[in-house]
Amino acid sequence: MTPELSDLLGESAVDVQARLRGGSVQSEDLLTLLEGHHDSVDATLNALPTTCFARARGAAVRAGTLAPLHGMPVVVKDLTAVAGVRTTYGSPIYRDNMPTESDFVVERIEASGGLPYAKSNTPEFGCGGVTFNDVLGETRNPWNPAYTPGGSSGGSAAALASGQAWLALGSDFGGSLRLPASFCGIVGLRPTPGCVPRGPSAVPFDRHWVEGPMGRSVADVALLLDALVGQDRRDPLSTPREAGFLQAVDRPTDRVRIASVGGLGLGALDPVVEQAVNEALGRLDTLPDWEVMDRQLDLAAAREVFAVRRGLCYAAMFESFRRDSPELLRPDIISDLDRGLGFDATTIARADRLQGELWKAAEIVFRDADILACPTVVVPPFKAGQPSIAEVAGEALPTYYDWLRLTYSVSLIGVPAISIPCGFSPDGLPIGLQLMAPPHREARLLQVAAAAESRLDVFADVSTPWQRRA
């Protein structure tokens, strides 16, 4: 490997794609580079336990002429099927599963010239905020392998942060794109439901589970989003969307009004996280024509609503596994599933009403602000080997997933949300800032996020894992 080629590992996806278009590098070169780097670093991290480089090389011949990805390698989360590639969903039930067809979003990636070359690790069926499972093991954080990368798109985030990927696909129900982005110092975007076609799915009318792009910069995420968006008749919730998100990132911002909404009325924040986010917002407030305002947004009812939505989704998706092979399901998944099967009509109707009230509260704040801002996660990254945390700043948590509350509450209001790096913990682990826009305003969200990313410049004096060489 020449020094010049290995330097590409630390470059942005946008720059690497420009090299592909200019002919100074070929997809085969990139795949060879990634394969060698994967062999060097992933034994420690376990971000990409399944690879398919031969399949990607076979597709590279035709991919090079297709826009917008033009032969760019892309990681796919192991919750998403790639034809002919082992797809386990992190579950013993699918330990040896070899799908014959790709999911819709993978078809879009390949139709846009993208090359899936690896499957990223995930917790069982994507359930939980830490990436481990009994089939493929635990994933570690590239900033410090003693720590977790979060989840459930933890493998994708760790691959990006370790230089094993330029672009990665993730998914998000309660924060699975944004949480690991925060913990790994990368960028993850949860689009508006319907923006990116999803499926095939047992619950095609569910509006909470979405697919979305991950990258090391806002521009990289915009590049991948351009390839993902659009209507697919097989997904009844998908909507017609024009690409052009990468161009939106390059446009200068006009007046920007950001509402800082703190902990969303859901409880305490770790002081380290609160300080990092407040300092970042203070820096953004100094930009010309930018205003950061403190606003109250009470989403406390999200805790009750999410328990119902989560339980109902689990019941719809996993009830047959509960009946036929319960010994192969995690106990906490069974518990949530059983709770979902037991909800009565009164409970479900109340959750529907409360979810509507959550949106009404957010919409009122959006009347005075383009963007809402809060921490992505209530705590900084914590040590690997534990499935959850029990308390935040002395406050006991009622469920094993309650520490995800700043992301799952945002999922419930149906808005696009992005996590960008904004600082570091005393242990040198990244902390993320979550920015939100009204539904279908991804272009504006990406435009503001890119400007914020440039202003914060959190890696200016930091040696990032993707710049290091094994």
From TrEMBL:
Keywords assigned by UniProt, alphabetized: Hydrolase
Listed Gene3D superfamilies: Amidase signature (AS) domain (3.90.1300.10)
Occurrences of domain Amidase (ranges): 39-446
InterPro entries found in the cross-reference section: Amidase, Amidase_CS, Amidase_dom, AS_sf
EC number: 3.5.1.4
One Pfam family hit: Amidase
GO molecular function: amidase activity
PANTHER family: INDOLEACETAMIDE HYDROLASE, TRANSAMIDASE
Protein name: Amidase
